[in-house]
Amino acid sequence: MDLHIKNIAILGLSSLFVLSCQSTTETSSNLTNEWTVLLDKNLSQWELWMGIPHESVKNLPNGTVTKKNLNVHGDPSNAMGLNNDVKNVFSVIEQNGQPVLHISGEIYGGLTTLKEFENYHLSMQVKWGEKKWAPRLNAKRDSGVLFHCKGDHGAFWKVWKACQEMQIQEKDFGDYIPLAGPSGVIRTATQGGKQTYDPQGQYLSKVTGYSHASHEPDYPNGQWNQVDLYAVGDKAVFSINSEVVMVIEQSKDKNGLPLTSGQLQIQSEGAEIFYRDIKIKALSSLPVL
């Protein structure tokens, strides 16, 4: 169901022209104006990449490399690798007759679409589970929806691809983080300090690290949240429970070239989480906000 998003002023939106939804890549041209469901019981439209387990993880195959500090960069050759989910971190269960993605969070990993997408509306529902794992036992529950993913697995922390991230974290739904080289521009109220999206802001800030959403409308743990990503050209809009919390412009890759398409990834990052009703459709222009 399309969202009627609350009125928020967006920089430059009045001058946006309609962009063609015809993809420049073979895979993303398959999208239509009707929803394409991305989740089934066999995860047939996805592949798995598992990172390096924390040293506290038990019952791993002999020879599995483990680490205490997982927040490291470098060669991902020691990661568990492609489709090697021996702990069943990513699985699909059935609730009320529909498939639900269950992510245990025990090992850092990414669920990645086999296809790339460009000019789309991605919709899903998300809620937290109870379990937390080292090294985030005392941290906020964390996950994330990664988009415009390019290149090899393991570019960031030996787990995730180079990408743009829509943060899914306790009290931090809709924050923005570019991973492993990309960047974007957001509107902020002041220069310096805590970088936060402000639709009325006077400054354009280039983001290469963490940037906070304008506000946090996510529901209490255990309740389903509606999460929507609108991506058209080099712009993206994050909507949480029908409220716009982040707008990115001038999305670029590590070489400074426009970043407008790529795979999708869903993170396992130390916390149990559930995703359902994951679907996508073509989008020719950003919605009127």
Automatic annotation (TrEMBL):
Residues 34-281 form the 3-keto-alpha-glucoside-1,2-lyase/3-keto-2-hydroxy-glucal hydratase domain. It comes from the Bacteria. PROSITE patterns: PROKAR_LIPOPROTEIN (PS51257). Pfam families: 3keto-disac_hyd. Gene3D superfamilies: Exo-inulinase, domain 1. This is DUF1080 domain-containing protein. InterPro entries: AL/BT2_dom.
